[in-house]
Amino acid sequence: MAFVTQHQIQKFHKDGFLVLECFFTAEECDSMRNQIQRIVAEMEVPPHCRTEFSTKEEEQLQAQGSSDYFLTSGDKIRFFFEKGVLDERGNFLIPKEKSVSKIGHALHAYDPVFKQITHSSKVQELGRKLGLERPVVVQSMYIFKQPGIGGEVTPHQDATFLHTEPLGRILGFWIALEDATRENGCLWFIPGSHTSGITRRMVRAASGSSTCVEFVGSEPAYDDSQFIPLPISKGGLILIHGEVVHKSELNSSESSRHAFTFHVMEAKDTSWSKENWLQPTPELPFPSLYT
Questions:
Q1: Does an H or E element contain 58, and which?
Q2: 189/197 Cα distance (integer angstroms)
Q3: Is the pLDDT of residue 281 over 60?
Q4: How far apart are CA 51 and CA 62, in angstroms?
Q5: Which CATH number fits domain 6-272: 2.60.120.620, 3.90.1150.10, 2.60.40.1120, 3.40.605.10?
Q6: Bridge partners of 240?
Q7: Which pLDDT score, from 0 to 100, does residue 57 have?
Q8: Looking at residue 71, what is its pLDDT?
Q9: Quick one: DSSP state of residue 150?
Q10: Which cofactors, by name (predicted)?
Q11: Per residue in 58-73, pLDDT tens?
Q12: What pLDDT sits at residue 1?
């Protein structure tokens, strides 16, 4: 692993992100890709994706099914699909391994390969270098960014979805399992945009409302010219401050852009918002990053 210098850590605090090339080996990346292939091979399409759309009421139940599936995914390994890959009966229109958008949100807890990567000694050492005292892992995701259909991710701040008091306690670890290029949808950032708080929050909706979550506040219109692209090679790690503004474009290329990402919270003197969609459960309290 590349030794992380004090200068790099200062750069992280200044920019709100840090690129560490060659953090993981090609073998480690391949072990994650091979494991995800096994998981996808055994995947069942969730029932709420299989209902045929017909009446308004059934559509609402469908939406509720989707929202429950999402809301209760914090302590499970669940599947989320790209648009237009399933017919109305929930059958795949394209090969299923090309249809998945992401798998979340507890790979780090329940899958041995992803657990080992998340708690690897080099990640723990990086946490200590960053001064994290009681970091806990709050969620993880495998993101496919499928060729041709991998959708864009509009500009956002992770703390919109993972809110803490005080702010500044969320840190994303984003691992490129394949080269991420401008063509296949690498991440783009606004350097220094992590210093002025957040403008929007996603919160759990009141029970009985038609959606499971709602947004409070709004995302400002960002100037495209402020974003810089961060292409990164397979095995590279991007550290992402919880309030830095970032996005990725549609993948219009022929190649996928697989990534494994997880979020850590500094739990010392921090409260996790009860309104966040993701909540620790008795089955899975947020595990300590340090083992």
A1: helix 56-71
A2: 16
A3: yes
A4: 7
A5: 2.60.120.620
A6: 17, 172
A7: 76
A8: 92
A9: -
A10: Fe cation
A11: 777 777 788 889 999 9
A12: 52
